[in-house]
Amino acid sequence: MAMTVETAAALPMSNHTRERVTVAKLTLENFYSTLLTQHEEREMRQKKLEKAMDEEGLPDEEKVMRRSQHARKETEFLRLKRTRLGLDDFESLKVIGRGAFGEVRLVQKKDTGHIYAMKILRKADMLEKEQVEYLSAPQFSRMSRHPVRAAAVAPMLLYCKCLTWTLPTASLQVAHIRAERDILVEADGAWVVKMFYSFQDKRNLYLIMEFLPGGDMMTLLMKKDTLSEEATQFYIAETVLAIDSIHQLGFIHRDIKPDNLLLDSRGHVKLSDFGLCTGLKKAHRTEFYRNLTHNPPSDFSFQNMNSKRKAETWKKNRRQLAYSTVGTPDYIAPEVFMQTGYNKLCDWWSLGVIMYEMLIGYPPFCSETPQETYRKVMNWKETLVFPPEVPISERAKDLILKYCTDAENRVGAVSVDEIKNHQFFESVDWEHIRERPAAISIEIKSIDDTSNFDDFPESDILQPANATEPDFKSKDWVFLNYTYKRFEGLTQRGTIPTYMKAGKA
Question: Annotated Gene Ontology MF terms (predicted)?
């Protein structure tokens, strides 16, 4: 008698067999989904070319030549996509950033000489045993087709509802790492750091991104202590546009802080780190503060340090907190810690905290410990105060208070225009702000100038290929469809200017 689908489904099946079935299913789905996506992208690029030529009013002969050039680029891009990219294609120049879950290196692509920032993430940390969540196969199947829009907006919903049978080893780390990769793929504007390639090996995941030699806002603030209101207006306005650009794509950043505001060679802001730390650091996990959550405001007291001592304490601890596994909750909105849910407005709270830090010299809730900071954030109505010895304008104070308030009353709840129309931004030319000179000029000697970054010792994260590799083969299915190559990486749009190639002054 022939076996029906229902009969086959009812047969007992081991977890190992189920996992192999899931891997096969996801592999096929990803293969055909990728083919469709590539076809759509080619059509979109062709339409974009035709539109640009029509707008320029080119003669037919010129159009034919442009189409021929474009066709050659498409052919070369297909050839590039079939080429397996790996560590051997890049020369590591210097470590420019390090965190608890990986590091960032300045690298040079051997065949082109182009300079990039390579973000390296250890798979072992993504599959940490003590933080394993259970994920159903149907859920992961949906996630792998468009993994991050849901994961970035509501990761707990995606990962903690087990609808049918479940498979272990897929954790929240995977959701956030896929968020990092997919947001960088989808975001193609001026306000987000551009990713050109992503790939993996047995040990690590790799994101190859544009190198922004201006460093980050954290380093700038540590050098300057405070910024003028004019400079603050410029950087906060650019960050408003950067945050709004990802909100328009349907994403929530959740980790807006000075460390994640990078500066390009002209000193303009670009947003980075979509998922590298969010949800991974203890500072983002409510259980880290579970013993403190029931303290009502009336029971709360805190050390009333003067502004000078606060600034000294903050500066002393700031960099250590940036690189620790604990992190700091200074910039996290109170609703993110609560289990009642949150939305994109949490990013505007974080921007208000950054604005306060720019003008005052330290964030409003800074303390000796992350736990104490958390208590101040949760009791912000009592702890958000402005020191009289550091005067700022009333319009600046008003905007900060509109950012750092209850979510339902927060500025930006209606639209981003609500923020743009605030009197603090009265003189801002929103349409052309990126074309104007930056508030603080960045001095860059060459494209591989790392003077705006800290020095880090070398590590063994990039072990040679013949080194002993951990056995992640049974778990690698959670990283399916991670590899990516950007078309613009071939056509050079958005890459470094010719005069700033490596080796040039």
Answer: ATP binding; protein serine kinase activity; protein serine/threonine kinase activity
How many whole angstroms separate alpha carbon 35 and alpha carbon 58? Answer: 32
Segments in 4-59 forming alpha helices (H): 5-10, 15-56
Task: Look up the pTM and report it.
Answer: 0.70
Provide the residue ranges of all domains of the chain, joining segments of one domain with +: 81-213+447-500, 217-425
Distance of CA 62 to the CA centre of its chain: 40
Active-site annotation holds for 89: no
Mention every residue, 6+ apart, whose C-beta is less than 8 A from residue 35. Answer: none
Task: State how far the Cα of 347 lies from the Cα of 166, in Å rounded to an integer.
Answer: 33
Across the chain, what does the average pLDDT equal? 74
- As a three-state string, the secondary structure of 322-353 is HCCCCCCCCCCCHHHHCCCCCCCHHHHHHHHH
The tokens describing 53, both together, are: 């030529």
Please state which CATH class domain 81-213+447-500 belongs to. alpha beta
**Cα-Cα end-to-end distance for the chain:** 78
* Cα distance between residue 290 and residue 368, in whole Å: 19
pLDDT-derived band at 415 (thresholds 50, 70, 90) equals very high
At residue 52, the 3 state secondary structure works out as helix
Candidate list 125, 182, 255, 264, residue with the active-site label: 255
For residue 233, list its beta bridge partners.
none
Cβ neighbourhood burial of 107 (10 Å; 0-12, 13-18, 19+): buried
Confirm whether 81-213+447-500 and 217-425 share one CATH topology.
no
Instruction: Give the model's pLDDT for residue 256.
Output: 92
In this prediction, residue 493 carries a pLDDT of: 35
Give the residue, 107 or 273, on which the prediction is more confident: 107
Fold for domain 217-425?
Answer: Transferase(Phosphotransferase); domain 1 (1.10.510)
Q: Residue 3's pLDDT band (boundaries 50, 70, 90)? A: low
Q: What is the pLDDT of residue 156?
A: 28
Residue that the structure tokens 């509802």 belong to: 161
- Check whether 420 is labelled as a binding-site residue: no
> What is residue 80's predicted lDDT score, i.e. its pLDDT?
67
Identify the pLDDT of residue 17.
78
- Binned at pLDDT 50, 70 and 90, residue 267 comes out as very high
CA distance 96 to 450: 7
